[in-house]
Amino acid sequence: MRVVILGAGFGGLELSTRLSEEFGDEADVVLVDQADGFVFGFSKLEVMFGRAVPDQVHHPYADVVKPGVRFVQSTVRSIDPVNKRVETDAGAFEADVLVVALGADLHPDATPGLVEGGNEFYTVAGAFALRDVLESFEGGRVIVGVTSLPFKCPPAPSETALLMDDFLTARGRREQSTISLVMPLPVPIPPSPAASEALLVAFAERGIDWLPGRLVSGLDPARKVALLSDGSELPYDLFLGIPVHRVPAVVEASGMTVDGWIPVDPLTLETSFPGVYAVGDVSSVGTPKAGVFAEGQAAVVADRIIALMRGDDGSAQYGGNGMCWLEFGHDQVAKVDVTFLPGQKPFGNLEGPAYEFVADKVEFGSSRIRRWFGRTWPAGVS
Ligand SMILES: Cc1cc2nc3c(=O)[nH]c(=O)nc-3n(C[C@H](O)[C@H](O)[C@H](O)COP(=O)(O)OP(=O)(O)OC[C@H]3O[C@@H](n4cnc5c(N)ncnc54)[C@H](O)[C@@H]3O)c2cc1C
């Protein structure tokens, strides 16, 4: 059975690893990605705040040596979900099972003034460039602002505001600074009231202005003000934006999307095209756009493919569960666990924030890199 996986992010790496672990050389998996390596979303914050250098968090796909998996570094140019055929710059691939795991593309240029007058920290390039910008920032009015819905990793803007507080404090620049967090949501993490409450307490304690229920619709770089969706303006010296998210253009052109994202069966992750699955940020499955959910969905698709290949009934179903580590600053991390089931209110719990979870978060990343890339990470952690 020929399995073609488009995208080697959280979803694609987990799925290809599972199939290789199960079938070894007997697997026939092609994994396509245009990038030369993988970077965890949370590593972007590490680099931006000067806690790591880019080389430490970049995992080259050249290191992926998995029996039965061929990694092809190339751009996907077209997807034909009816015939399960894709065109890439490296040629065409035909599949028996096709899995779209191409994530969400980011469009800083879709927000007027953002490219000219602000910064964004959601792309790898944007976050890495901010390392130097922050290092030379003398303090002033900082805005962390969301420009549209949906956006990946809903806790990331809150984490960024808290880490910015740490960063400015450590450099003696906090007193001459303000930090504002502009979010379209009513609370920081709506599916987790306990995590939202803990974040609101931390914002209040650290003097972070929480501005819920509105978006940043543009920047006026000449006047250095952010234009908010409620008609108000907010002056800034440093703007850190969360850019507009969309499916990659090749997905849009494939005809698989409805209202911007690929709809899937929430239990099987299969699209309306038989034998074609979508996992992770590219779909509208109903969970937040986050790596842990992409990974959980990939595991279910893996189980279903494995059952299909073994001639079993393939009854694995997606349970909508994900656990995120939440940076609280002050060397503390919290553990947020949430489950999303169709037709039900999300439920979950919060542990921490606590110093002990810092090591657990490191182990979360290390364990993925061990399985996906076959090497230890970070250096010195076995
Ligand atoms: C600042 C920040 C912090 C985050 N922190 C966390 C966290 O702590 N925990 C968590 O779970 N999630 C976190 N996330 C979210 C997480 O990074 C994403 O939700 C996750 O990577 C989605 O996985 P995916 O497999 O759907 O897509 P991705 O991991 O985005 O992978 C998609 C892949 O498709 C490739 N691709 C796209 N278009 C093409 C094309 N045309 N041709 C070939 N290849 C293509 C891309 O190169 C990419 O490698 C964070 C995100 C950010 C920005």
Question: How would you characterize this protein structure?
Answer:
The protein has 382 residues and is α/β, with parallel strands linked by helices. The chain has 2 domains: 174 residues, FAD/NAD(P)-binding domain; 140 residues, FAD/NAD(P)-binding domain (3-Layer(bba) Sandwich), CATH 3.50.50.60. It is built from 10 helices and 23 strands. Helix 1 packs parallel to helix 9 and helix 6 runs parallel beside helix 7. It is globular and about 65 Å long. The model has no long low-confidence stretch (mean pLDDT 96). Bound molecules: flavin-adenine dinucleotide. Flavin-adenine dinucleotide (FAD) binds next to helix 1, strand 2, helix 2, helix 9 and strand 21. The site of flavin-adenine dinucleotide has 36 residues, from helix 1, strand 2, helix 2, helix 9 and strand 21.
CATH hierarchy class name of the largest domain: Alpha Beta
The shape is globular
- Looking at CATH, the homologous superfamily of the largest domain is FAD/NAD(P)-binding domain
Q: Number of helical runs?
A: 10
Query: Numbering strands along the chain, what is their spatial order in the largest sheet?
Result: 5-2-1-9-20
The number of domains: 2
Uncertain spans = none
